[in-house]
Amino acid sequence: MTIEKSFRNSKEKLRVSDISEKYNQSFNTIIMTFQGKLLDRLLEDNIIFEVPDRKFGSAHGKYGIYRLTKDPSILFYLSPIGAPTSVGILEEIVYAFDIKHIVMYGSAGVLDGNIAPGKIIVPTKAYRDEGTSYHYQEASDFIDIVNHNVVTKVLDNINVDYVKGYAWTTDAFYRETESIYEERKGQGCIAVEMEISAVQAFANLRKVNLYTFIYGADNLDSDSWDKRILGNLSIDDRVNYFMVAVSIAKYLNNL
Which three-class secondary structure state does DSSP give residue 102? Predict the structure, then answer.
C-alpha cells in the first residue's frame, strides 16, 4: 500500500485524550514558531510568561508553553521542526487548551532568487511532499491554505510588505534535488519549508484554523546553495516577525 492510500476516516486506536489532559482554561489562539533563538529574548523582555505545570514535546524533551504578558488570552509555543513532531504536539495542545486558531510562522528557502532575504511569503497552497498530511486528508499534490487572505489582510493593515505563492513542504531537506526543484518551481512553488501542508491537513481534520506565513532565508535559485540569512538573523528581526504574528493573533481574537 502506498502512502497515498493511508487516509482512513475511522476511529483512532490511540486518541489524543489518552495522552493529553484538559487544562483548566480555554484559549482562542496560539502562536507557534520554530525560532529557537527567540525564546530567551521574549522572556528577558517580559513579553511572555510560562504556563505552570504544562509542558509539551516528545521523548526527546518537554518544553514550556507561554502566555503573552500584554494579552494573556494568546498562547505561544516554540516547536521542534518537522511535520510529524509539530502536528503531534499540536494535537495535544489544541485538545488541552481548546484552541481555535493557530498562527504559525518560520523561515523558508526561496526557489526564486528575486525574493529578497527576509521577505515575508504568504503561502496560498502547499505541495504535500511529506508523510503526515496523508494520514489527515485524502491524497492530493497540493493542499489549499484556507486562510491566506486573512493573513494578507492583517499584513496590509500594518503596512508589512509580502509576496504570495505556493510553498513546497518536504520531510527531506538534503534531498531537495535539482530535478525536484525544477519540478516544484514549474508548479508555481516559490519557497520550501517543512510543516505547512501537514499542519493545514491537521487543521482541516480537527476543525481548527491555520494562519501561516514564512520569510525567505536561504536560496536554492542559484548554481550552488546560498545560505543568505539562514541562522544569522538578528534577534531584533526575529522579534519583529513575532510581532507580526501577534498582530494576526490579536485580529483573530477581535473577530
Answer: strand
What does the pLDDT look like over 198-208, one tens digit per residue? 999 999 999 99
Amino acid identity of residue 56, one-letter, is: F
Whether 8 is in a domain gets the answer: no
> Residue 92 in contact with residue 16, Cβ under 8 Å?
yes
pTM of the model: 0.97
125 assigned to some structural domain:
yes
CATH number of the domain that residue 223 is part of:
3.40.50.1580
Please tell me the distance from the alpha carbon of residue 136 to that of residue 203, in angstroms, as a whole number.
9
The tally of domains found in the chain comes to 1
- Grid cell of 117 as nine digits: 532575504
Measured CA to CA, the distance from residue 133 to residue 140 in angstroms comes to: 10
Please write the tens of the pLDDT for every residue from 3-46. Answer: 888 998 889 999 999 999 999 999 999 999 999 899 999 999 99
